[in-house]
Amino acid sequence: MSRFHKWLFFRGAKRRNPSIFNHYEDLKRTENLSFEELKLLNENRLKEICKFAFKHSLFYKERFKNVGFDPDENWSIEEFKKIPFTQKSDLIRQNEEIHTPKELFKKRFFVETSGTSGEILTFFRDESWDSFNRAAIWRGYSWFGANPWDRKLYFWGYNSDFFKRLKLSMMDFTVNRFRLFDYESKKLKRLESKLGKVKIIEGYSSMIYELALLMEGKEVNFNQLKLVKGTSEKVFPHYQEIAKKVYGHKIVNEYGSTESGIIAFECPDGNMHINMEGVYVEQDPDDLGIVVTNLQSFSFPSIRYKLGDQIQLAPDSFRCSCGMQGPIIVEVTGRIGKKILGKHQSYPSLTLYYIFKNIYFNSQRKIDFQAHQFEKGKLEIWIKEPITEDLTNLILKESKKYFSDIDILLLENHDFRQQSGKLRDFISHLPF
Ligand SMILES: [Zn+2]
Asked: How far is the centre of ligand 1, averaged over its atoms, from the C-alpha of 324 (Å)?
């Protein structure tokens, strides 16, 4: 079975991502470099992408010129640091000017990602960049003896996979406990036998946590499992406690974003190593926010990009016990996975993302919103635009599909976008 999946993986990768194998080999070779060697490689690649962006991206050419930075003439890290930060709004609004000409690439993939405000960023990712990103994940797997062709359980939204149907059921019951119990009585036995074959569990950490809660005491045998990987959300200590108990593994952090790629991957010794081959990381001293330059994104450069997360970096002198010398992100402090509390149930804050994403796709309405919870069973959704009857119906109708015991109050015209830092779609004011 696993040989078949390996064959499938190789066949698919050769067609879709022919450069993945070279990238993976390169990554395996460079992971053992010394700290100084990694720094050098990192800065050389930074120079390379800056030169490329200066030559081919109208947006960056202009930006660099405005501060007198010409990577061909006066390259230095000091000069580089004169470039103003790139914001997500730049990536969205200056999208065309940021893109480099498509003729420069054999193949590009169309990518779409939703921001916290419901605004959608789209761009083209060239084949090498896409393959590098997959190779970086593959390398992370390799640290745990796992492979990309291993059986996985995903907690995303819409990817198709061997576990698509299973996963969709999971999505359902993680947002609705009642359906969960129906599911349990009918199909849990089958689910249990499937789970016993899974080697990798990955996705939103709050959902991995929910699954663990569900499986607690069920005596599912997870002895095939090699890796439990959490992305996109903060992993709380109480998640780890139950993950270890149920899966026999802690949740390993993969830190990245669609536009920046894999920024860091946690090693078996528990430290998040920066992906030095793929990103140049700085920290904004004003707000401790991470600033990322993607070193692989030639089709859509993001240079000195303010991702919106706060991080804590380990001192340069710190060395991880695993032997790899890549610098360490101690913690991503700015991502919050708080729950929305109904009268009887709780819901992941991601539910809001699905509600507004559905509205966008079904009704082509981009709605800037921020939800606040001050009281259990009640949710205030702040909306920037004037609230009409039509808009109210649209939001309430979509919300009802997910929330069964929450009263929703829509409030008009709050200028929540003026806040500094990352715009969060949900803020809980409850103490728990
Ligand atoms: Zn390590």
From this structure: 6
Average pLDDT of the segment spanning 398-412: 93
Around 140, how many Cα atoms within 13 Å sit in the side-chain half-sphere? 29
Phi, psi of 105 (to 5 degrees): -125, 140
- Res 276: pLDDT: 98
Average pLDDT, the chain: 85
What is the domain range of residue 112? 2-137+255-332
Provide the domain count of the chain: 2
In the reported structure, the alpha carbon of residue 337 is separated from the centroid of ligand 1 by a whole-number distance in angstroms of: 25
Neighbours of ion ligand 1 (CB under 5 A): 267, 269, 271, 320, 322
Is 6 contained in some domain? Answer: yes
Per-residue model confidence (pLDDT) at position 159: 33
Residues 9 and 127 in one domain: yes
Domain termination site, one of 273, 307, 332: 332
**Range with the lowest mean pLDDT among 12-21, 45-54, 115-124?**
115-124
pLDDT for res 155:
67
Q: Domain end: 302, 332, 362, which one?
A: 332
Gap from CA of 259 to ligand 1 centroid (Å): 25
What's the CA gap between 153 and 166, in Å, rounded? 9
Taking a C-beta distance cutoff of 8 angstroms, is the pair 176, 33 a contact?
no
